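hey m, so remember when u said the tokens were messed up on ur end? i reran from scratch. heres the input so u can diff it against urs
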Amino acid sequence: MHMKSRWGLIVFVVAAIFVWNSCIGSNSAPANTSFMWVATQGDQMVRAYTISQTNGSINPIGTNGTPVATGLQPTAMTITPDGRTMFIVNAVGTVTNPAGTVTAYTIKADGTLAGSANGVNAGQTPVALAVDPAGKFLFVANQGTSSDVTSGTISVFSVSGTSLSPPVNFPTELPSDVSGSGPSAVAVSPAGNFLYVANQFSNTVQSYSFDASGALTRIGTYAVGTNPSGLAFSRCAGITSATVNNSCTVADDNNLFVSNSGSNNISIFSACIQVSATCGAPDGTLTELSSGSPVAAGVGPATILVDRTSDYVYAVDRGSNQVSEYQYSPATGVLTPLGATVSGGASVFSGGITANLANNSTTFNWIVITNNGSSSVSPFKVPATGKLIALTSGQFAVQGQPSAILLH
């Protein structure tokens, strides 16, 4: 299948669903568990679960996860920093309204959702989204098509609870572009006011600043591998004090990871988003590591998952239905393969990771992978070694072809 076909790109999409996995909101799961939400493309639903951080057991909340309707082709989801609101991008519109949509949901105290499938219009084929750390703006990547130079845009919504203002759409194409750029992933800097966009058609990552109104100003454009499809910031990015969170004692230069699904590797950049040894005045620019970038991945790496409690990074390799595993060096930014992969089910789509900030000998972080083809999810324990351990019970069935997933 051609990489630039509409459906081929939709299944490679990655949202920055991992960004808020570590947030602590007003809604909390029972002790030693996390909430998990799974969107399904077969029946256009999102369901709520809990996952035990002790043994990885998954349990639906209410009857069958208390499903709530989404729009057509739910593809990615994110959560606001306060843990109260969830947004889902739906890549496909209708005959009468061809634009994709964003649907909004209130997260109840028990983890169930309240919302409607009636979404707000985004651009053409929205496939990824991210919220800024202040919870003020929602950024949506609209992939568009390779044949239309004007179709690739970033929609910026103002957020107020579950209400989204009509978006302002900013083009990602450069004046020199002769085809669409194909925005495929977005990430907001954990410090400063910078947005990063991966473009699949042009094989680039772009940096932007945004002002108090959410307006974007392009900073720079950087070459990456083929068909970039995922973005993630390193574990300690944006943390300026060792006492703030996650026991971060080394300034890790705020590294940005880019998964390149076409060239089967990961590019690593240093982002100038806060003052450090290599960033005297934060300006949002990127500098690729001179050594160690790119690093090899499996076939078709998409979602990048960062363990916020330890120096481990994982790439969901959709082309080989596996997860690649890496040790991360905060001092250098380099990813070192752990020499192992684990396998998911059929047609792996995406993944999420818990954020057990009190990691100990009895509770662990867990990675859960969605298997679109086998209508299931695969949970893996993250042990002290970083090498993932699959549950002996195997996959957990989720009806309706699961796609996007979020753990909180």
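this time it looks ok to me. The radius of gyration is 19 Å. if urs says something different then somethings off w ur setup not the seq
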